[in-house]
Amino acid sequence: MNRTSGTSSHAGHGRPRAGTRHYALFSALVLLAATSASVAAADDGPGPLGVTSVAVRTTQSARVGVLVGSDKTGDLTDNHFCTASVVHGQNHNLIVTAAHCLSGDTDLVFAPGYRDGKAPYGLWRVKRRFMPDSWSKDQDEDSDLAFGVIEPQGGKGIEDAVGANRFVTGTSTGATAVTVTGYPDSRDEPITCTNKPQAHSGTQQRIDCPEFTAGTSGSPWINGDGQVVGVLGGHDQGGLTPDTSYSVVLGTAAAELYKDAAADP
């Protein structure tokens, strides 16, 4: 299974994850984790570690949003299927997400800062997509990363509207805590969790955060310097359980893909 939602046929992946609607369990887990002596505050990121909660409205959360098919924009509540975020590019027009979120041929729009069925910063059309050849040809899980070039509005790019994080490659897995923010398909507000990633393999990294269910594919992993150092996807297209998520290790191939996408006008 993957982290796209049940409406993710836009991207060619329609299998919802099992156990995505355990709301009572979700509340209990948050309460237990927040009160457990085993949960320590993060020295290098907002603590406590490994606790998932609703993301508050900030300039940072406004840069994260949902992907929606352009023919479904009349009802965002029932039709968002993946998460993406704005990253800096020389033309101020770039989002990053998982490759399996952009693999289809359906026209897509991005709604940054989405909450409660509304797009407070507007709907922005994805006009071009950049993904590795190894994903396009073989769906190689080590290549599950993609960029979308966003069409400007009123002569301004999406980065001018909500700001952007830096996309950074070559950082050591687990060097610092990261904050993962994304949109489960069963919720109309983003959730967030901070923890330290661990190496899963030489090409994949993992993070333990509860309740990252279907719809959270593409969620950015952001360190304390506002840098995107991971994107939820990769191994098993994000993971088989809602409590452990994966990302491709961002190395040379990711850097080359970003360079191409960031230069696109």
Record keyword descriptors for this entry.
265 residues, Peptidase_S1_PA, alpha+beta, 4 helices, Serine protease, single chain, six-stranded antiparallel beta barrel, signal, Glutamyl_endopeptidase, 15 strands, 13% helix, TRYPSIN_HIS
Summarize the SSE layout with pairings.
Layout: H1 23-35, E1 52-54, E2 64-69, E3 82-87, E4 94-97, E5 108-112, E6 124-130, H2 133-138, E7 146-150, H3 158-162, E8 166-167, E9 178-182, E10 191-195, E11 198-199, E12 204-208, E13 220-223, E14 227-231, E15 244-248, H4 252-262
Signal peptide: 1-42
GO molecular function: serine-type endopeptidase activity
Pfam families: Trypsin_2
User: Largest sheet, order of strands side by side?
Assistant: 1-10-9-13-14-8
Mean pLDDT: 87
Query: What pattern of helices and strands is seen along the backbone?
Result: HEEEEEEHEHEEEEEEEEH
Low-confidence stretches: 6-45
Q: Could you give the distance between the termini? A: 35 Å
Kindly state the percentage of residues in helix: 10-25%
Radius of gyration: 17 Å
Overall shape: globular
Number of strands: 15
Count the DSSP helices: 4
SSE class:
alpha+beta
- Residues in β-strands, percent: 25-35%
Largest sheet entry: 6 strands, mixed
Describe the structure.
The chain is of the alpha+beta class and 265 residues long. It contains four helices and 15 strands. The protein has helices at residues 23-35, 133-138, 158-162, 252-262, and strands spanning 52-54, 64-69, 82-87, 94-97, 108-112, 124-130, 146-150, 166-167, 178-182, 191-195, 198-199, 204-208, 220-223, 227-231, 244-248. The strands form three sheets. It has a six-stranded mixed β-sheet with strand order 1-10-9-13-14-8, with no helix packed on it. The longest helix is centred in the N-terminal third of the chain and has 13 residues, at 23-35. It is globular, with a radius of gyration of 17 Å.
